[in-house]
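Residues and backbone
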Amino acid sequence: QVSDIVAHLGHEEQVFRSKMDELNHMMEDRNVDPELRRRLRIFFWSNKASQRRGRQRQQLIAELSPGLQGEVVMEFNRKWIEKVSLLAKVLLWSESSEHGDMFRAFVVDVSLKLHPSVHAQSEVFGTPHVLYICMLGLVSRKGRVHRTGAVWGADFMLVDSELLEPFESRALTYTELTTLDRSTFMELLKTHTENCPELRQKVRQFCCWLAFQRAFIVEAKSRLARTAGSSFRSSSRHTLVL
């Protein structure tokens, strides 16, 4: 078994070195700028370990029984799940509902649908209606620095883009993320509510309340801006008269 592992790692190393050779040949043929060459090499070296970890994790989870899969996925993802208000609510509802197992199964399936994403240093990214979880690296957003374990875009399930928080971000270092888009989330919700209508009802109530809060804030900011503009114009008129 040890020899098989060593052989597998040796094969992966050969594949990676072949990829790096192809990259170097391409950059040489195209006379790529030295600074860009450096950034490309750093990206591939950084992404090497990430891809290996991702493949190993997926293979191990796939070999588990459905029950153990759920337990392992929840153990791996509980920290960030608790930072997403809707999913934290679903777990809370599971403790008081007679359909608790179905609520938890929904959260497990959401975790299994997370999509890996990587970004090079200084890269700008961000899409509306997407949940982002930072697995590695530093990200700048809204004047704040997000570290490993940070979550943003937790309002991804809202339909109206004007009610969403700013989503444009910049990778300060090589960054690994996992993401979930609204369409995938809604498909999972549709599948699970066939056996548990209560889940859809509670999710809808949560989204309506969140949308109301965001709309209230947007309207308040709009009125403050109009008031400030009116006061400025009035002050300007008085200055001209004087």
Notes: The first strand starts at residue 115 and ends at 119.
